[in-house]
Structure formats: C-alpha cells, structure tokens
User: Which sequence fits this backbone?
RNA sequence: AGCGGUAUCGUCUAGGGGUUAGGAUAGCAGAUUCUCAUUCUGUUGACACGGGUUCGAAUCCCGUUACCGCCGCCA
C-alpha cells in the first residue's frame, strides 16, 4: 500500500475552532495508528479574512493539544509551500490543462445572468444547475466577449453519471452528477475556488486519506471528478459527524467558547479538551475514558468512528477537566494558575505557599477560573464575610471564637500537623463541653478565618495565612 | 423544493437477529470528611414511529417523522 498521508487544512480567518481541533485529532490519530504522515496546510487564500495572528493561534493551539504535524509551514517538508497563498501560480496551470483536455471551459456569464438562471430554477421549484450557455462558444464569440472587457471564469464540465465512493466512516455514498452542474474552478479574477485548490493541493501533497467534517460531503463528488479528469489517484474520504451546540445548532460564538484558546482562557486544560473531544464519536475498547492522545492512537480505528452528529455538553468536559486538574503535576499546575490569580499580589506569597495553596484548593474545582474565588481568602488582611455571615451570627459563635483566640496564641503556625492536632483538640473540647458537633465548631472557625462555608483544609489554610492574619480575622469576625 | 447523512438513557456512547440493552457524565439518595466541595456506594433513566422479512427485530429491508449538512466566481 502506498504511503499514508493525512492533513488538516484550516483557514486562518479565526482562532482554531474546537471542531477543527477534533478533525485534526482524528487525522493525527489515523496517521499515528498507521505510521503515516500528518501535514498542516494553511488555507489563507481569502486574504481579506486571513491574518497572521490567527495563523499563530492555530499553530499554538494545535501544539498545545499535542497534535504536532510532520510537515507544514514552519517545519517544512518536500511538498511545500504549505501556505496556500504561496501557491497561487500553480492553479491556473492545472486549470489550463483541464481546458486543453476538454474537461473545462471558459464561462463569460455575468453575475446578473447567473442570478437570473437561479431565480428561474427557484420559480420552477427545480434544483439550480448551470445552463452551459458558454460551453460551446466559438473562438470568435469568446474574443468578442473578451473585447467587451468581460473576464471569464473557468467551469468544470460535469459528465452525467452515477458517482459512487466508499466513505471510511459513512460507507457507500451515491450521487447523481446531473444534479451538480458545471461548477467554477477558476474565478474570473484568476484565483481558484476552494474545490479546485484543495484538490490540486491534496494531489500535489500526495494526501492519501481525507478525513474531514460531513459538511464537505457534497463537495466530494466534485473533487473526485477533478481528480479523475487530471488522471490522479483519488484519495480515500472519511466524513465525520459535526459537533453541535446543546440547542442542536452549529456551535457558534453565541454558545460561548468555540476556539481552543477560549477554552484555555476559561480554565480548561488542553489535555482534557482533546480527550473530551476524542470521545465525541469515538469510544475506547477497554472502557477507560481518560486517556492521552498517544494512548488513544493505539486503540483508534477510523471505521469505529460514529457517523452521527454529537452535542457538545459541558457537564462531562467539566468533570473530565476536574480529573486532569487533580492529577496534574503540582508545580506545572501552579504555573498554569498564575493568569487566573492575576487579581492578587502573588509576590507577597512564597513559591512554597503558592504551591501549597493550589494543592489544597485544586480538589473540588473543575475549571481553573474557579480559583479566583476559591483562593480569595488567601490574600489580604481582611476577608469578605458575605458567605459565612449566617454561621457567624449563630449564638455559639462568640464563645467559639473567643476561645480560639485564646488558644491560637500558643499555636505553632509553622507546622501543619501541629495546627491540625490543635484543631482536633479544639473540636473535641467543644463537643465535650458544649455538645457541639465537630463540623459545627469548624464551620464557625472557617467562617471567621475565610469568610466561607466551605473551602480548603483548615489547618493548612491557617499555616499559609500565618498567626497574625488569622488572629486579625478572628477578631474581625467577632465584630460582625 | 431537491440531494445527501443520521436516529440506543437529558448528554457522550457500547452492543447488534434470542442480552436482566452495558459504561461514562449529569440527576436523585445515602456514606465518609473540619467543608453545602471532593471522594465512595446505591439508584432513576433509552433502542423515534409504522409496516415488512423471521419461530423471534432494538438489530435486516421499506416507508414516515425529526434533526443535521449541502445546494456560491465562501472556505
């Protein structure tokens, strides 16, 4: 079998979309599984909408997700250039070959004429197919049209036949080419249309398998026709179901984050994101869902991919992200949390305490942005008592806090174990003397020192804060 | 309108002519814990509908419905 080569060809008209990331992932997995090559091509022909910032975002996001390409703009490769904008001179040559061989012809129809044809078709409730008005123009007629300043486009002449191909994920797909109509391959401004450019690029880059979203299914027959006309080998196609928003519409900005970098800003880890997205349409044979991309690659078979659409729900992503947060190396995680704690002055906290803070607050969170709220009480002298107010209003509160103040003075705030034991004694004392449940006592302590009803381990929290801050806050709590 | 695709718990999915239709997540209930969090345990919940083939259909076939996609000199 020939070399397996797959590709992802994003258009840099926006940041890397989560759907594109999933398509990239399946291509990557297929390449890894089969020992093939994964190539990246940037389709930046739409100069109006493309920009370098988006291109950079695509590079960064793909890398962060662990989807390193073997060939592409920055790493090179023998089938470049990998920026479509640098390939403009290639397309007219191939279009000319098609014209010369009789597979394509010049079309001088104006947008107005075309519009009229479409309206006519619409009126008769028929599918619009180009009339082929220009197919048999004589050289004289063409010259005359040209003299009038009309620049022709080039249309592909579609043979009437039944076109069948075997899709890697959908199975056998049939099309009646009568319904396609002669489509434009070169615009009158001399640039190629999408359907033409991809074929030429994929052909020249020797792409063997094209795995993409099912929104491309109806482009496929057109592309196959071009491959055939050029006498090129037709690649295998595999069309993935789409990712839909919870309302079953296309995932778009109004649903929130759509770009990988948006998710990262919201506190999702790229490892969790890619793992989650892999499970949309694919499932592991051993039932273990949390897996690295490399582990997934071993188990991956393109034929197992589901051909239906799937809805992107946050519930499971959140859970999965939480799992990754819990398991992540603490030092790396701490680095990663810095942007989410921008509100606070991290310079006043030692690196040791910072890691400790993250260690004790990471457990219940599902996204990193929750840290801003969950870590608030580690900073500053005072604390916001809104959440814990009710607890502090209890009648036992002053009794508990006055006693705490008294005892705390003798505690060693350099030792977690020490504070931990002292707090245990403290609870025991109130249980014995006042018949208070351990949690009731601790609720008051927690509310006084953190202002909250729940939060990180109390002993460790106290050692991070230190005796002065704790004392100050307990006194404050007595005042509310 | 036409063409194409898809249809299993709310969601992601496994399975696939005979199963108690499995798992995950979410939900609910309980347990542990200094915490209304985490963790653990238990539990509710699904084969879109109608025909056909068959001893037997969720599974195969046909139709219907719903949803998605495409119908550009956008990509």
Assistant:
């Amino acid at each position: 079998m020939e070399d397996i080569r797959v590709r992802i060809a994003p258009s840099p008209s926006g940041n890397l979309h989560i759907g594109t990331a999933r398509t990239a992932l399946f291509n990557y997995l297929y390449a890894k599984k089969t020992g093939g090559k994964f190539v990246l091509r940037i389709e930046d022909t739409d100069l109006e909408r493309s920009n370098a910032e988006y291109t950079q975002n695509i590079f960064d996001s793909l890398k962060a997700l662990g989807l390193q390409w073997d060939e592409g703009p920055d790493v090179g490769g023998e089938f470049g250039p990998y920026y479509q904008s640098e390939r403009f001179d290639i397309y007219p040559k191939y279009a000319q070959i098609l014209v010369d061989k009789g597979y394509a012809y010049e079309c001088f129809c104006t947008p107005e004429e075309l519009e009229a044809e479409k309206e006519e078709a619409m009126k008769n409730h028929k599918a619009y197919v180009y009339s082929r008005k220009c197919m048999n123009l004589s050289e004289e007629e063409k010259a005359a049209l040209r003299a009038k300043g009309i620049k022709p486009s080039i249309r592909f002449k579609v043979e009437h036949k039944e076109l069948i191909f075997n899709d890697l994920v959908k199975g056998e797909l049939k099309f009646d080419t009568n319904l396609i109509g002669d489509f434009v391959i070169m615009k009158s401004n001399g640039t190629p249309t999408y359907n033409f450019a991809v074929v030429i690029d994929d052909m020249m880059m020797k792409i063997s398998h094209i795995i993409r979203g099912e929104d491309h299914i109806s482009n496929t027959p057109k592309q196959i026709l071009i491959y055939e006309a050029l006498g090129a080998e037709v690649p295998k196609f595999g069309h993935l179901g789409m990712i839909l928003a919870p309302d079953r519409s296309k995932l778009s900005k109004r649903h929130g984050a759509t770009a990988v970098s948006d998710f990262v800003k919201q506190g999702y880890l790229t490892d969790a994101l890619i793992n989650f997205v892999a499970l949309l349409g694919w499932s592991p044979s051993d039932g273990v869902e949390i897996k690295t991309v490399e582990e997934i690659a071993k188990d991956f078979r393109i034929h197992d991919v589901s051909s239906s659409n799937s809805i992107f729900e946050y519930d499971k992503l959140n859970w999965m992200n939480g799992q990754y947060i819990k398991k992540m190396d603490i030092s790396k995680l701490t680095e990663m949390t810095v942007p989410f704690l921008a509100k606070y002055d991290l310079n006043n906290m030692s690196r040791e305490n910072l890691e400790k803070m993250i260690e004790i607050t990471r457990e219940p969170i599902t996204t990193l942005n929750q840290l801003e709220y969950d870590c608030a009480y580690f900073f500053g002298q005072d604390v916001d008592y809104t959440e814990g107010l009710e607890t502090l209003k209890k009648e036992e509160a002053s009794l508990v806090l006055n006693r705490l103040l008294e005892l705390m003075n003798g505690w060693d705030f350099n030792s977690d174990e020490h504070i931990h034991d002292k707090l245990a004694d403290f609870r025991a004392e109130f249980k014995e003397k006042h018949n208070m449940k351990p949690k009731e006592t601790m609720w008051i302590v927690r509310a006084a020192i953190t202002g909250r009803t729940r939060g990180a381990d109390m002993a460790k929290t106290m050692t991070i804060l230190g005796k002065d801050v704790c004392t100050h806050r307990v006194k404050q709590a007595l005042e509310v």
Notes: Chain A has a mean pLDDT of 93. The radius of gyration of chain A is 32 Å.
